[in-house]
Design a protein that fits this description.
- The protein is an alpha+beta fold.
- It contains nine helices and eleven strands.
- β10 and β11 form a beta hairpin.
- It is elongated, with a radius of gyration of 24 Å.
Length: about 325
């Protein structure tokens, strides 16, 4: 895709301790392996993106009205990185956004073109995307191909976790695209579980597709998807209750330092699971399933336990990963 990126590799990034993880697998009584695809998603906001640029020649000042989720970041990026104008000469206004869920955080070419065209023509310039254009150009989400392995002892307690992920970032890098499959993803691969050793490798890849960036949780749902698919699959392979396997491996002592940077200060994961099971009448599911089967219907039930990091920067955790800003 780009001559600077051999084999379309953007970066090859690791977190955790490979040696400790290999040692944990060497002691394992059981190893669960999975190949997991977290498919690409196309955002579909209630209203498509729009921008209106106005250049005031008398004041030598730009104003951009845009459906942005973060006008402050938009002004910073357009000023500092695209050299539209100094920040004191650029105002960004975000009226009704019309939905976004991440896809309207980023700086797109149309916003800058509207400002440039306004200066060239001497009149305000407006642009509105149609739905097809949005599907093709708005930043997409997810698109992870992952191989994961989880080691257990004879009592079904987790000993270690290995994760290898290929993250498709599209044809071009976007605003948070490098952080999404790294800082926001791999740092949460311990989930709610006490896992002594973890090693994760992430390879970011260029492809002939729309750029991928932070969307609907941004890395954190991808991590939860890996962990909970692994736990559910392990429970089925062991022939044990999915709830009890999770409960056996929950973190119970705090603060808890994970092998992937994050330190959990507090939590009661068993209480949350108990409340969810009670609210859903989990114990009565077998009866409901049998009743459905008598009517020729299929009924299933599942569970997912997750933990989320919000507002992780600026922080010591992000600083330790090498981030200069947050």
């Amino acid at each position: 895709i780009h001559p600077e990126a051999d084999n379309n590799l953007i970066f090859d990034w690791d977190i955790g301790n490979a040696d400790d993880t290999a040692a944990a697998f060497g002691k394992a009584a059981h190893v669960v392996k999975m190949d997991i695809i977290n498919n690409r998603l196309v955002p579909n906001a209630m209203e498509p993106r729009a921008a209106l640029g106005h250049y005031d020649k008398a004041e030598d000042h730009y104003t951009c009205w845009t459906t942005s989720q973060n006008p402050h970041v938009a002004r910073l990026v357009m000023s500092a990185f695209y050299n539209v104008a100094p920040e004191n000469k650029l105002r960004v206004i975000a009226p009704d956004v019309g939905g976004g869920f991440g896809s309207k955080i980023y700086i797109y070419p149309e916003e800058i073109v509207c400002l440039w065209a306004s200066k060239k023509t001497g009149v305000p310039v407006k642009w509105v995307a149609d739905r097809t254009e949005s599907f093709l150009t708005d930043a997409h989400g997810r698109d992870h191909h992952t191989h994961a392995e989880m080691a257990f002892d004879k009592d079904h307690r987790i000993l270690g976790l290995k994760v290898e992920t290929q993250a498709n970032l599209g044809a071009y890098m976007s605003l948070f695209s490098s952080a999404t499959p790294t800082y926001l993803y791999a740092t949460l691969l311990s989930g709610q579980y006490n896992i002594p050793a973890i090693h994760a490798n992430v390879k970011a890849i260029y492809t002939n597709t729309a750029p991928v960036d932070a969307y609907r949780g941004a890395g954190r749902p991808e991590a939860t998807f890996v962990m909970e698919r692994m736990m559910e699959t392990a429970a089925r392979q062991f022939g044990v209750s999915p709830a009890e396997l999770r409960r056996k491996n929950f973190v119970t002592a705090f603060p808890h330092q994970t092998p992937v940077i994050m330190c959990y200060d507090a939590g009661d994961y068993a209480a949350s699971l108990d409340a969810a099971m009670q609210a859903s009448d989990y114990a009565g599911f077998a009866k409901r399933k049998a009743a459905a089967a008598n009517k020729g219907l299929l009924r299933g039930i599942g569970m997912s336990c997750y933990i989320e990091a919000c507002g992780i920067a600026p922080s010591a955790a992000v600083g330790s990963l090498g981030a200069g800003v947050g």
